[in-house]
Amino acid sequence: MNICVCIKQVPASSNVKINPVTGTLVRDGNNTKMNPYDLYAIETALKVKEMSDAQVKAITMGPPAATAILEEALWMGCDDGYLLTDRKFAGADVVATAFTLSQGVKFMGKYDLVVCGKQTIDGDTAQGGAELAHFLNIPYVCYVDKIIEVKEKSIVVRTNLDKTYETLEINFPCLITVEKNNESPRLPSYKRSVEFKDHPMHIVTYEKFFDQNESNYGLKGSPT
């Protein structure tokens, strides 16, 4: 089984700068951290790995400095990391970001399950996961707070609908977005940090994508 977990590097404080020309966040790699919801996405992916002997690959879009969160993901237990980075991706809103991630996921090869955090704390749209599923043309379930069972061709999850819960079974390949839950994300392992010290990350640029229409990426592909 192959699992792809989407993560993002976000500002570590509310003191962020806005580019006055583009209206986008200035991302220089300083004072950043992994999006908190993505820590739960990684933990969920690793739980599924333990239940099904899966391979977990982390993917992120951002500047070269975003490699730091891929390293953190490997230290937590992921098996590999992919960085989507190119000037053509700069200034992307949630639509262009989701499309770019969809191209990255396809580049990675066969996948059964895509796991995303519920939302990012810098954008707060909670639309990224659903839009990624749309561009991948796969079914999805949002606000998952518990993995109940992993079957050969499907996964059974519990989704938190605020005032009620629903148990759903969804066929592979599929996508889920993950809520914060009672199972705290595991800490990065010092042993794994030593083991993966020289592990090369996969650097994926625009030229490696199947879709070569520049109007789908970055500011050009952003309707908002």
Describe the structure.
The protein is of the alpha/beta class and 224 residues long. The protein has helices at 36-52, 67-76, 94-108, 128-136, 190-195; strands at residues 2-6, 9-11, 32-34, 55-61, 80-84, 113-117, 140-150, 154-160, 165-171, 174-178, 202-204. The protein has a nine-stranded mixed sheet, with helices on both faces. Strand 7 and strand 8 (154-160) form a beta hairpin. Helix 3 crosses helix 4.
N- to C-terminal distance: 36 Å
- String of helices and strands: EEEHEHEHEHEEEEHE
- Shape, please? globular
What are the low-pLDDT stretches, counting only 5+ consecutive residues below 50?
Answer: none
SSE arrangement:
Layout: E1 2-6, E2 9-11, E3 32-34, H1 36-52, E4 55-61, H2 67-76, E5 80-84, H3 94-108, E6 113-117, H4 128-136, E7 140-150, E8 154-160, E9 165-171, E10 174-178, H5 190-195, E11 202-204
Parallel strand pairs: 1-4, 1-6, 4-5, 5-11, 6-10, 7-10
Antiparallel strand pairs: 2-3, 7-8, 8-9
Helix pairs in contact: 3-4
